[in-house]
Specification:
Elements lengths: L10 E3 L12 E3 L8 H4 L1 E6 L6 E10 L6 E6 L4 E9 L8 E5 H6 L10 E6 L11 E10 L4 E4 L2 E8 L3 E5 L4 E6 L4 E4 L5 E6 L6 E9 L23 E6 L6 E10 L6 E5 L5 E9 L5 E2 L1 E5 L1 H5 L15 E6 L9 E10 L4 E4 L2 E8 L3 E5 L4 E6 L4 E4 L5 E6 L6 E9 L2
Parallel strand pairs: 3-12, 17-27
Antiparallel strand pairs: 1-2, 3-4, 4-9, 5-8, 6-9, 7-8, 10-11, 11-16, 12-15, 13-16, 14-15, 17-18, 18-24, 19-23, 20-21, 20-24, 22-23, 25-26, 26-31, 27-30, 28-31, 29-30
Length: 415
């Protein structure tokens, strides 16, 4: 994905010169860090009757190219697709689509299309907004692919490399899992089917192979611990930190989140103890529209009548950032981006000549952009390292576990 055509890079001064002896601090402005389709897409495979070799697919995918009016989904070679339908995830309304050849895909919006492949070409509900906007699409279809899904004696085998980061496979009713080669969450759905779900934390396709066997009398029901078994792969909360020079103890951030519950019209971000939030702003990434934001503390939260599951106890020191938007109607969802500036001297600082960042992350996908001129020297947690368009170092921490991961790293200034 060519980031230079998708995202703008800007610079701004931190402050004006206050005296003749004080020079302004300058840092690079936060910019939209483009994810990849594979990183944000979610695919759910529901295995149908084994003898058919068919599976139903729910595929959530996003187009990020500013101004784009179409999205292209390749039809995998060797698979026969039927029953396709496409909806706009923001409104829940159907979208126009057609199956096109690779040649036509190249001339109608996807110049890198494989000439040997066919594509589902989706006409988006609206052009993708500039500066980090998104065009979110849900594709439903059924594939027939017996090499990928077949019987082996009494057992069923699902053997298919998966390139997306977020994936789930649902077994037919009455089957129990006997083998899975990719570390995965295993959870039972309300109708008794088992769901095998995982985040792929490698840059390659996950060579998934599942084996399951029919088990008479194996039925389902909601577990008494169901709340503890939330599916990690389907979570939509991602965050990007832009570190200012470490002596400021300050970083800008934005976190993206999809809300899809009918009637919800607000988001509450609880500020961690020891941190101080400022400069809140928010956008609807589906439309590009601005969303109002305000910081409330202590009694202000109670007076405003704010209720949220994370606000178990409100003390005089409790601080939140409140974002309000139009309550969702049935079938709608909204992709939100919240931006803030945090100061946290306890977790982001300088020790000697070394930057130290020590903070726990609860989200599945977390990215950090170092200040210009700083390079990574140590990281306790596994990290993917790259550069963004303006040359700054980007660190990506993918956490497939349902709990927090401790991110401790150091960096040094390079001349």
């Amino acid at each position: 994905m060519n980031t230079k055509t998708k995202w703008r890079v800007a610079m701004f001064a931190a402050s004006a010169m206050l005296t003749a002896m004080s020079a302004p601090t300058v840092w690079a402005q936060p910019i939209a860090v483009p994810p990849t389709h594979a990183a944000t897409a979610y695919t759910r495979y529901e295995l149908l009757a084994p003898e058919t070799g068919k599976f139903f697919i729910l595929y959530d995918i996003t187009e990020y190219k500013s101004g784009a009016t179409a999205l292209f989904n390749p039809i995998r070679k060797g698979s026969v697709a039927t029953g396709e339908s496409v909806t706009d995830m923001a409104t829940g309304k159907p979208l126009h689509f057609e199956v096109v050849t690779g040649e036509k895909a190249r001339t109608t919006g996807y110049p890198k299309a494989d000439l040997a492949s066919d594509y589902i070409r989706v006409t988006l509900a609206r052009p993708v907004p500039a500066d980090g906007g998104e065009g979110r699409v849900r594709i439903l279809k059924t594939y027939e692919d017996k090499p990928s899904y077949h019987l082996d004696g009494r057992d069923i085998v699902f053997d298919r490399p998966l390139g997306n980061k977020r994936n789930a496979v649902v077994l037919p009713v009455g089957y129990t899992l006997t083998a899975c080669n990719v570390p995965s969450q295993v959870t039972q759905e309300a109708d008794g089917r088992l769901r095998i779900s995982f985040l792929n934390n490698t840059p390659a396709e996950a060579p998934l192979k599942i084996r399951a066997t029919p088990t008479p009398g194996f039925t389902g029901g909601k577990s008494s611990l169901a709340k503890k078994f939330g599916e990690r792969a389907i979570q939509t909360r991602d965050i990007v930190y832009f570190l200012r020079p470490p002596e400021t103890h300050t970083f800008d951030l934005y976190h993206d989140y999809t809300e899809d519950k009918e009637g919800v019209g607000q988001y509450v971000n609880v500020v961690r103890p020891g941190s101080e939030a400022s400069n809140p702003s928010a956008r609807n990434l589906d439309t590009g529209e601005t969303i109002p934001a305000q910081i409330l503390k202590g009694a202000q939260i109670t007076a405003a009548g704010v209720h949220d599951h994370e606000l178990e106890t409100i003390t005089p020191d409790t601080e939140i950032v409140l974002f309000k938007f139009k309550p969702l109607q049935a079938g709608e969802s909204i992709r939100l981006r919240f931006s803030e500036t945090y100061t946290d001297p306890g977790r982001y600082k300088v020790v000697g000549d070394e930057m130290v960042f020590d903070r726990s992350f609860g989200r599945a996908i977390n990215s950090i952009v170092l200040p210009a001129g700083w390079k990574l020297t140590n990281s306790a947690a596994p990290v993917e390292v790259s550069q963004i368009a303006d040359g700054r170092t980007r660190l990506d921490f993918l956490n497939p576990r349902p709990d927090e991961t401790g991110v401790l790293f150091t960096a040094r200034r390079v001349p």
